[in-house]
Amino acid sequence: MPTGTLLQMSPRIGRVLAPNPSPFTYTGTQTYLVGTSDLAVIDPGPDDADHLDALLAAIGGRPVRAILCTHTHRDHSPAARPLSAQTGARVTGCAPLVLDDDGPRADAAFDPSYRPDRVLADGEQVRGEGWTLEALATPGHTSNHLCFALAEENALFTGDHVMGWSTSVISPPDGDMADYMRSMQRLLDRDDAIYYPAHGDPVENPRRLVRGMMGHRKQREGQIMRFLERNGASTIPDMVAEMYKGIDPRLHSAAGRSVLAHLIDLDGRGLAASAGDGLWRTA
């Protein structure tokens, strides 16, 4: 998939791939341009000069009504402010959020430069000529995550909440498995025809994918409980070594974060508990 090239996904939707591939971003972050005569830009991506030039070329001098960010990981939002300076568009979308990142993802540290001109609450809309985007609060991957629904095409821009190549990393303290599952149920209850994720291909049977992803999380939860019942008090690395055999070793730390998110959720439901010294046990 070429970077820096505008690919037209539909009459209203174009996509430009940023040059930031990694084990966590797949081929890179996908920035979407919505509209024809005037535009919204969704997830402007990293603050990379080549990507900014590619976005400006794709915009082609058309008015940009809003620069929308699904969340503030630094592969999504840092280009918002320089793009705003070039186009005059307001930075709009998720709330700012900066935490000390103790997780394994260098690409996913929160963006301290993000200063939105307008924060969208759940259900609020941004409009242009022939397009309407509605914010949908989907906490879980991050507490400030939004998806954006395009009414005219029954499409949903899902950011990192649902990706086209992998499940989302849920990394505490901000990532929350219980919130994620509630947000997934919210998507399952909708009738969107297609998802446009920030990473990976469009999802053309979204409800089937969401059901599968929710089932995967429930299976992982069951694996954790069976591991603890079989082995007694155990560490997260012990669980990862057994439950994630065959995955890229560079992803083991991220897998550990997701296991921790499951354990915190299980603890909140009275099914597991910390045993101290990095050990977890059944409750």
From TrEMBL:
A Pfam family: Lactamase_B
Transmembrane segments: none
Stretches assigned to the Metallo-beta-lactamase domain: 28-199
Protein name: Beta-lactamase
Recorded superkingdom: Bacteria
Ranges in coiled-coil conformation: none
Upper lineage: Bacteria, Pseudomonadati, Pseudomonadota, Alphaproteobacteria, Sphingomonadales
